[in-house]
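Table S2 (text version). Query chain:
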Amino acid sequence: MTRRALVIAALAIGAAACSRPAPAAGFWFDRDAFDLTSEATAQLGGPLTAPEIVTIDRVARAEIDRAFAGLNFRLTTRHDAFWRVGVLATVRGKSPIPSAGQSLALGPLGGDGSVGFGILALHAIRYAPKNASRRDVVETIGRGVGRAAIHEFAHQIAGTADNATDENSYEYGRSDRVSQYYGDLHWTIALPALRQKLGQ
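Corresponding structure-token output:
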């Protein structure tokens, strides 16, 4: 094969690699996920309505898309996606206390995780400013759920994804904080691994 033919072949292989579709990342809400605790329902002023549920789903997905913008990451609703995070009413690990999320990273087999809607919604309501409207709080619930899912996806994709020092990072390990719901978050220690695993 001539040198020119080798260069053309190499360019074709590179183009094919760059155009390779990203593994799918599944994100969905369980049918019973939106059942708030009695405390959250009382503080919010009543159960969530159908339009509010649509808003929460939309805001959560937009938050995930924003966090992974620029990376080879494709969000779907598929339950059998390569990486997946389902939103459940409650997530319980080894502790009897509800958890905001948990994940199992499966390496070349992807990952499986979940986030707890109830505890995230309650935190969003508790941290709401006194002058926040119900609509503001509902959107914030979506933001908090989306950011919890981002953290779980980071565990599945990047492996280690906990940053105990920066409360304004996606990698911070606790959802019981103001910036989870109100404020801007950014990547820190997980970003190099995400770039390596996902590509840009």
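Notes on Table S2: DSSP finds six helices and five strands in the chain. Confidence is low (pLDDT under 50) at residues 2-19.
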